[in-house]
Amino acid sequence: MSYQPPVQDLMFCIEHLSHWETVSALEVYSECELPDVGAVLESYARFCAEQIAPLSQVGDTQGARFEKGRVTMPDGDVQAYAQFVEMGWQALTHPVEYGGIGMPRAVGAAAVEMLNAADMSFGLCPLLTDGAIEALLLTGSDEQKATYLGPLIEGRWSGTMNLTEPQAGSDLGRVATKAVQRADGSYGITGTKIFITYGAHDLTENIIHLVLARTPDAPAGPKGLSLFIVPQKLVEPDGTLGAANAVNCVSIEHKLGVRASPTAVLEYDDATGFLIGEENSGLEYMFIMMNAARFSVGVQGVAIAERAYQRALAYARDRVQSRPVNGQIKDAVPIIEHPDVRRMLLRMRSLTEGGRAMAASTAGLLDIAHHRENPEFAALAEFMVPLVKGFCTERAVEVASLGVQIHGGMGFIEETGAAQHYRDARILPIYEGTTAIQANDLLGRKVMRDGGATARLFAAQIAETEAKLASGDASARAIGTGLAQARAAFETALDWMLENSRTDIDAAFAGSVPFLMLTGALAAGWSLAKGALAAQTGQDNAFRTQKIATALFYAQHILPECATEQNRILCGSQSLLDAAFPD
Amino acid sequence: MSYQPPVQDLMFCIEHLSHWETVSALEVYSECELPDVGAVLESYARFCAEQIAPLSQVGDTQGARFEKGRVTMPDGDVQAYAQFVEMGWQALTHPVEYGGIGMPRAVGAAAVEMLNAADMSFGLCPLLTDGAIEALLLTGSDEQKATYLGPLIEGRWSGTMNLTEPQAGSDLGRVATKAVQRADGSYGITGTKIFITYGAHDLTENIIHLVLARTPDAPAGPKGLSLFIVPQKLVEPDGTLGAANAVNCVSIEHKLGVRASPTAVLEYDDATGFLIGEENSGLEYMFIMMNAARFSVGVQGVAIAERAYQRALAYARDRVQSRPVNGQIKDAVPIIEHPDVRRMLLRMRSLTEGGRAMAASTAGLLDIAHHRENPEFAALAEFMVPLVKGFCTERAVEVASLGVQIHGGMGFIEETGAAQHYRDARILPIYEGTTAIQANDLLGRKVMRDGGATARLFAAQIAETEAKLASGDASARAIGTGLAQARAAFETALDWMLENSRTDIDAAFAGSVPFLMLTGALAAGWSLAKGALAAQTGQDNAFRTQKIATALFYAQHILPECATEQNRILCGSQSLLDAAFPD
User: Between chains, do A313 and B581 touch, taking CB under 8 Å as contact?
Assistant: First the structure.
């Protein structure tokens, strides 16, 4: 079973959903034309399908191996990564002035999806490097940029995020790693960091760790954190690599999934670090990196969902079992003919395409917000990021699980491959901020803080789409009906949240994840609905018909969940907060 | 983290939900008193917690091993199984006349839950043996009963079900294994069976395979299947073991979960088999066994859910992270204080207790139906079996996944143990008939066949519970409101299903799984509501308060899903059936 990158749908999303007209009118992207984007993505698709996808099952079986302080990657990863560097793919979305290709974020999202669908374990390394690049671009000094950006954008060096410690996971205020300034201006970093993705590996000649630590006089809690560059090998003034830094990998984790992605425990023993920006602003900087990573993790969710869908679809076409329930055929048929298998496949497809559409739209908003002073776009972009992360990752677990189910007993056998997606997907709603953390971000920072202004703008834009659907054909009108009902559920929940944010904050946060799921489901359904409108005209009839059919299925099978979430929020907070947990 | 068998809740379910008055009035159970049941379950609980639970992680890590045609079980399993036999636990629910203890099915369900919560891989062996015993009791000849029942009920021999072949999974009509009668009346069985749970192991001195096969002149399809006893070792007339039969284990599967439960490929090469009952009636007999096994697999779902809940609860009490959102405490608190962690824990608890309550009720119905001529009880029991299997197993996957989520990053590390439940649970909605098969059974055989009569009786009984809740306190009334809304959704969906069963059978079956999930959620909510009524009086205040709180949470957080399922059924069939899957 090979991976077939969905380039047509990715291009459809870029063209119709990523605010392409506005994005491509930005000066920074003035040379970026759709046909070029298509050519780049086709080329990347070939690379992912041919070079990377075959590594996924091998990597899962072998896993990254740890021995005597060194991590050895599974067979083929080193060669494939060298090719990734050779072809310059790490540079795709980064600024031309630092050696990047300068493509918009929506193109980057398409690339992230394909690479992670091909092999999520492999895809994590470039994903983390992207985050490190983004953080350095926005907060690094000119000297730091000159030293580190080039090799990172080339992919010759990789980047990591060092946040978590045994006692500090979601609660970064508890970070205890120490940073003591030395006479030469550098800092001695001492402490233990855990869950460091690609914290040690043999793919690149250097690893640039971005590390949250605390200076001796820093205030307690999250406001006393500073961010440091800690290269695995120190970099000489001429850019060559010098001595090894005092950072050691003491073990890697034995994980449920993404087993070819080494998750390291790193010990810093007076390692040399370089402060980024100002002391005590580390968390703010880390959030820049984290926001980029959160968006990308949402896209990983789409990636796993797509791969699981393709595998299940191929099996459902191939596997012959049982006659149709309507009795019209007397022989067993491929199981794709059975209504419930269709239901599962369509659920997988609509959730996958919904997530992709929403991610493309968000990528466009992020680009516009980044390159133009526009508080409305910026607020909408920030509003969308926790939705992409929270919704697409939770749904990836569901989609991967459906993929196992479609395979029946074969799905439970590891060699089939469906189970790997189910295992790999499970980390997605956890890392880069759990779903609850995303929900708190959405509710606290993106909804309550501006009194619901952005949320109401979001709803108003959806209403505009509904109005367009209302003058369409029967399918369009049915999509519009589902969307309007879901939006009404959202607005009811929103009013209640805003009211309770003043009167009963616990009750509000008791519904934070249901609110995230409601809003995410609505955002994905809205994105699919916009796609359905765009698909009313065009060339490829089968593709356009499918886009509309998928949006309709989503409107009738997924959007009704919004009313359930609304019910939970409005009626369920007291029973949630009052219940006791006796021994 | 040790397993604490929930004996108090199990006994509560037996006393208040398993129709205990009627069951214990049956002649066969006339000597069975609740205090005795309590003593038996306490004893079994100790065995499960102390002897079995410690094996679970070891077994998962080592797995069953296959070498040169032999299966070796993980460390400790052989000794623990010997103790299981020594204590006579296999006999718990079987007839006294064959050496059984003769306890009712509800007690058996409690025992199955505890054993499988302790170690599902271990629990599968006795579960399959129970099924073989049940089939022999109902369909075996006197001689077959005399030969096989004693050692099976002792647990000295184990039983298996041999249905699946590479081309015949859900579609048993495609079974191709041959059975050719010999001059001595026995049959020569030849063919390959796959996915045979405990098809080979070193726990017992013999294995009794029940095998579906086809005689030379049998009609094609499911009506040409016969059922055979194929002992691994032939049994001499005096009951001693003779020559090895021509059944060979050629491999075992490398699975996502339940790794200590060997899943065998068995080759029958003119093996000696003995016909059970009549030729061509094999599927009917197998369904007897399968119905018992399906119910038990539903209980396995409750078991995994309970274990996952206990593990998550312990972690949530222990792990300190972040201040409360309401700002009333300035220090980090155990995460159980955070609303969303409470939400996840209560979701886990209410789904687990709901499944347990529903299983206890169904067990009682099955006993009454089995031992008394009462078509109404029989029909209700049959109606409930696919709900217990379908709903409890799908929810087990969800609950296990929430258990991982509560652990955050630690949940993804295999040593933590939460991931094992997520892996183990995944087989439950697949084996003994996938969720779609259960849904077809519910809709086709249990609803449409009697024109909805049983389904309406089910709804009417729920309405009676609602009436009692209406005169209760605020919690009771709120539970009643949730139940009434869910029942209304059920009746709307039922009307639509009955109408479409005549006019558009494809549309009806397009909603079969949503209908199963709706009905299952309602049945579990109803069972919890009956429990809440029972909990209004009694001794242990903390326990009774928890029962009511759990039922209320379920009514407000889970039952609203019924309306969503109803929407999918009524509005979603066309978009499901019309969608194309272009290449």
Answer: yes
- Judged by DSSP in three states, B14 sits in helix
> Quick one: average pLDDT of B362-375?
92
pLDDT(A291) > 90: no
Q: Which CATH class is domain A7-154?
A: mainly alpha
User: Minimal Cα distance from A397: which residue of B?
Assistant: B401
Region A480-501: mean pLDDT is: 98
Q: Is the pLDDT of residue A293 over 70?
A: yes
SS3 readout for A86-115: HCCHHHCCCCHHHCCCCCCHHHHHHHHHHH
Residues of B in contact with A510 (CB under 8 A): 339-340, 342-343
| Amino acid sitting at position B324 | P
CATH topology of domain A159-279: Butyryl-CoA Dehydrogenase, subunit A; domain 2 (2.40.110)
Structural contact between residues B100 and B163, judged by C-beta atoms closer than 8 angstroms: no
Task: Check residue B410 and report its DSSP letter.
Answer: G
Match 């939006």 to its residue by tokens. Answer: A487
ipTM score of complex: 0.98
Q: Report the b/e string of B225-240 with b at 16+ CB within 10 A.
A: bbbbbbbbbebeeeee
Q: Is the pLDDT of residue B1 over 70?
A: no
Q: Please give the CATH architecture assigned to the domain spanning B7-65+73-154.
A: Orthogonal Bundle (1.10)
Interface test with B, best of A575, A577, A578, A583 (most B CBs within 10 A): A575
C-beta atoms of B580 and A434 within 8 A: no
Asked if B177 and B192 count as a contact pair (C-beta separation under 8 A), the reply is yes
Residues A476-505 have a mean pLDDT of 97
Q: Which residues of B are catalytic?
A: 432
Contacts of B579 in chain A (CB under 8 A): 342, 346, 546, 549-550, 553
For residue B511, CA distances in Å to A405, B443, B506 come to: 17, 9, 9
The DSSP annotation for B234-288 comes to EE-TTS-EEEEPSEEEEEE--BSS-TTS-EEEEEEEEEEEEE-SSTT-HHHHHHH
The C-alpha atoms of residue A542 and residue B580 are separated, in whole angstroms, by 8
Are B575 and A556 in contact (CB < 8 Å)? yes
* Cβ-proximal residues to A50 (8 Å cutoff; 6+ apart), any chain: none
The pLDDT value given to residue A373? 80
Spell out the alpha helix ranges (H) of B448-537: 453-470, 474-503, 505-510, 512-534
Q: Are A199 and A286 in contact (CB under 8 A)?
A: no
C-alpha dist (Å) from residue B309 to A428, B406, B577: 21, 10, 38
CATH topology of domain B158-279: Butyryl-CoA Dehydrogenase, subunit A; domain 2 (2.40.110)
Q: Can you say whether residue B482 is alpha, beta or left, with left for phi > 0 and alpha for psi between -120 and 50 degrees?
A: alpha
Residues in chain B with CB shorter than 8 Å from the CB of A353 are none
Model pLDDT for residues B44-99, shown as the tens digit of each residue: 999 999 999 999 999 999 999 999 999 999 999 999 999 999 999 999 999 999 99
CA distance A292 to A134: 8
- Mean pLDDT of the B321-337 span: 93
For residue B419, which residues of chain A lie inside 8 Å, CB to CB? 256, 426
